[in-house]
Task: structure prediction
Amino acid sequence: MDTSSLDELTAAGGMDMTNRLQQNAVDLQRELDWFARVLDTRFKLYFGQECEYSSVFDVTPPLLDDSESPYAEFVKQFGPSFAERVALVLSLVPHVKPKLLDIFFTRNNTFDRRFTEFGGLHEATGEFLPTGETLVFVLAADDLQTRFETFQMFEAAHYFATHNILRLEEQSDSASLKAPLRISEDLLLRITTGQSKRPNFSANFPARFIETPLTWDDLVLHPGTRRQVGEIETWLQHGDTLLNEWGMAGKLRPGYRSLFYGPPGTGKTMTACLLGKATNRDVYRVDLSMVISKYIGETEKNLGKVFDQAQRKDWILFFDEADALFGKRTETQSSHDRFANQEVAFLLQRIEVFDGIAILASNQKENIDQAFARRFESVIHFPLPRPQERLLLWQQGFSPSAKLSEDIDLQAIAEEFALSGGSIMNVIRYASLESLKNGDGVVSKQDLLNGIRQEFHKEGRLP
Ligand SMILES: Nc1ncnc2c1ncn2[C@@H]1O[C@H](COP(=O)(O)OP(=O)(O)OP(=O)(O)O)[C@@H](O)[C@H]1O
Ligand SMILES: [Mg+2]
Result:
């Protein structure tokens, strides 16, 4: 289970949340008890004391199959091996129960100094910080095979790294088992509080979390558009099964790319948010016009971070102002354009191999050439609403508390004024505020018409 669905579960209900956290505390405690037994066993075996186990690997970890706590969900998601589970708990202990590690302060009486074989760093706070060597000691003492297996846990391709779970803190040289074990902040938060933290927008991380309080019922689309949006939803719900259980991963391109095009205010952003909401995924918006014009040079690295996180956390990436990608792929004039071209090439390539879902939104189609369109699993037109859709937008748009003056004929207004959903909502906001200002809460026909005139004016059109 990914972090976003955890958020969703968390948000599902106050009572649920409390139960899940209580269960989580129980699960963590059982896990720590198990770990304490593992440690005890290692020390007894190492110092040749009597012990009920002949290997630490015989100390069975708790079964978490029936639990739905954040910790249990995590274990079920990744199915760590015994050694991996020890590594995880060892990295977790300093944050939840540092005392458990006091045993590592045992001194070597023969030489009156610490045991080098325990590894670990002794913090100024008096606490023990486990390192890769500590892990090797707990698992193997002096077994070389296990030592090598431990190394593998920290390789770049291991899920500890690819899913941002656990790593050896970077040292000046390459990763060494002498480096402290670092559980990711993300995971720590998730398995201790059930929450996950969303990264903030910055020049370093040029993407912004977006969401909507609205539901599918609020979305009014041309039936053809709605059907195509439904296809993305189907992919989000069943794509995983198709690729993995049905074994199609080798035959189909990973991920899913869709291009939304249409005039402003036709629901492109709203649809992206609803797809996320319906499938428990976070949606992050990247403003391409800004990314391409402002962050020359650093852009690749920063966008790379967005793609990496998105892939790990199963986000939907929403690239707005995708027009910035078109046009610019031709000849170059200035050095600025050459940079822009590099960025565009990089972006297109990343989007093409992206293993998640990417939605690109644009206001124009003329610019999109065939070669470009072929990169997408779907290209969806968001047209301006027709009169029947506009009527629905007017009917559903007002607050249930608003009263419409009797001379307002929404049917006639819907037929007469060719406005987008976004513009209709602007008019509704304006007219509703006017009615509140006037104190009677009744929306007058005049306010409605004034609001409509303003919208046309904004777009430089005549009503
Ligand atoms: N099809 C629609 N159904 C219901 N509401 C809509 C629709 N289109 C727009 N709206 C309303 O207008 C607001 C703005 O729409 P949205 O931001 O999704 O437009 P957009 O297509 O992304 O526009 P832009 O191209 O300017 O980014 C929505 O939050 C919603 O309130
Ligand atoms: Mg938009």
